[in-house]
Design brief:
By secondary structure, this protein is α/β, with parallel strands linked by helices. The protein is 63% helix and 9% strand. The protein has helices spanning 15-19, 23-26, 30-61, 67-117, 122-127, 130-172, 174-185, 188-221, 223-228, 232-285, 290-332, 397-404, 427-432, 448-453, 461-470, 474-478, 497-511, 527-540, 576-582, 585-599; strands at 356-363, 374-381, 386-390, 412-417, 420-421, 434-437, 515-519, 545-549, 561-566, 569-574.
Length: 600
Amino acid sequence: MSTSTTSGDAPQKSSLNALAGLLPFLRPYRRQFILAGIALLVAASATLAIPAAFRQMIDMGFGSNSDHQIQHVDLTFLALFGVATVLGIATAARFYMVSWLGERVTADIRSAVYSHVVTQSPEFFETTQTGEVLSRLTTDTTLIQAVVGTSISMALRNVLLFIGGLVMLFITSPRLASIIIVTLAATVLPIVFFGRKVRRLSRDSQDRIADASAVAGEILNAMPTVQAFTHEQIETQRFSSSVESAFSTAMQRIRARSLLTMIAILLIFGAIVFVLWLGAHAVMKGSMSGGQLGQFILYASIVAGAIGALSEVMGEAQRAAGATERLLELMAATSSIASPANPLPLPARTANGAALALSDVVFHYPSRPNMASIGHMTLNIAPGETVAIVGSSGAGKTTLFQLLLRFYDPQQGQITLDGVELRQLDLHVLRNAIGIVPQDTVIFSANAMENIRYGRADATDEEVIAAAKMAAAHEFIERLPEAYQSFLGERGVRLSGGQRQRIAIARALLKNPPLLLLDEATSALDAESERLVQVALEAAMQGRTTLIIAHRLATVLRADRIIVMEHGHIVETGTHASLVEQGGIYAKLASLQFNTQTEG
């Protein structure tokens, strides 16, 4: 569901509806909103009191130089200072509370989106780029932070000033206020029209930024390959094109918003200048005092400033509405793989490991619905049995492991673990019962101790070291600068391929599962390391069921049973000796590999 390609089809909801999706994140902080609201009311009231004080000062303070008038001026300025003090305190309190709310709500949104994304099945990541998710977690949430932490407060403040200013305008001069209302109403339609255009362009802009982030993430994660093929310039141009596309879309948004701001200012201040011209004539005719006109000018300025600020806030709200829609789309994504409402427990673990059974299983990937990766597979594996799975690339071996881990569900048939259908098990219970050493080893940006402890978070240091020794990893870890506390670099760049694989094997052994899946577990090892790990794996296979995927047949000679797969089907099964005698696919593979090794 790559939303970068669906923005044009997205329903164009109003900003208010889109931002309403933030309410669940705002509700826990009602008290802070109330406190911010009180500070907001006090600050707005203080602002609206200032023009009235100016009217008193002009009409009564400048008429003569009597002691009474001088005293009145002194009191007026003292009152003004008091109002300014209240305004300053209330404004600071409002700023603190709304800034706190912006940071808090943004942190909650980021956590909620991330915790939701990590529960999605691999099907989600087949169609959604990692860079796009990261863009939503950073850029989109930053826009929302600006709205929650600043724009909402500014909007409420200016709404209060607008309403209060209008009321005071009517109190000061109903005739001039009526004229100004009619002229201001004429400015609403163009502002609304351009506001919708800004919102659409804002969403497009965010989508283009997400595209650029996705390109950058893909390139940076494959930097050795990029440099090996001398594609630095090509990839730089590809990223630059993506950035330029984002810039072009952003400039369309900026132009539309600039035009919106210009139109709003011209119309609003044009209306105010016209009305003030009428007011100046009224003063000259004596139908209005100078203080009244001064008060009217100040209230008109407050109303005009409020409208101008609201148009600015509306622009921010339009951008945040687009960002909110994108985040809510991400939150609305539901995983097709989930734990059942009432999961069944696994039977107590036996000394031999887990029993595994596949019954007429058919599976095809969602992205390739017309190509079956597993076709009508039936297989029974007894507890404690070691089964090797061989076959050419694309035969369905790794897909089988993904089905066992329930990264996907088969479209037909069922898979049982110790007699319980996988769909009836809690996902954590199922996956805690399985240890896997994947073909592409994942090493996290942490030290060696924590990388191995990833297999079981509550393991002690002694248990971690014991698992490392079983996986023939202890010696090379001890030779690292800080031994088990050595930082292994991003994606384990400070280790060789064989060392990374032994870390992964240690991680799986630390988990101590009843079912062990080895996907080319020794493929990156040199001959000496492979011998050490093979001995360790044979010891680790005791008391558990083991499935081994291997292209190198030397690693599966001691398996209890060898299964040969081709195009998602089991085509041969037996021991090494019986399969060689059959003279089929396995015999040809064995002949090629062992003859080559002999010649070497």
